[in-house]
Write a structure and sequence with these properties.
112 residues; mainly beta; four-stranded antiparallel sheet; two-stranded antiparallel ribbon; 6 strands; globular
Length: 112
């Protein structure tokens, strides 16, 4: 993401960063996270955040090379239906609602 988008990263991890308020940070509107190999690949905390915002929407996916499999990251907008914003109007946006099932529900299982 480019700096001209004015997107400031906020890092959340178990017990550090913005962990305590991870489920109520309405000032953080976007999430960049893995959706393949599965949602939560980088840790369980991201699933806590996504569960707290059930109307989140995938704006765009990106192919990434994290593992030897086909990996993808997604830019997710947390407030798609609750704030009336139009993330689909962003340049290059490819909005797919219901990100809980993208790419497939079997890929969203938490792995230990």
């Amino acid at each position: 993401m480019s700096l001209e988008n004015r997107i400031k990263p906020v890092f959340v991890g178990r017990g550090f960063g913005n962990y305590d308020d991870r489920e109520r940070r309405d000032d953080v509107r976007y999430i960049l996270t893995y959706v393949a190999p599965y949602v939560g690949y980088e840790g369980r905390v991201i699933r806590d955040v996504l569960d707290a915002y059930p109307n989140h929407t995938i704006i765009r996916t990106f192919d990434v090379a994290e593992t030897t499999a086909h990996d993808q990251a997604a830019l997710i907008y947390k407030f798609a239906e609750t704030h009336g914003d139009r993330p689909d109007k962003l340049p290059g946006a490819n909005v797919a609602t219901g990100s809980r099932s993208a790419p497939s529900e079997s890929n969203t299982r938490a792995h230990n």
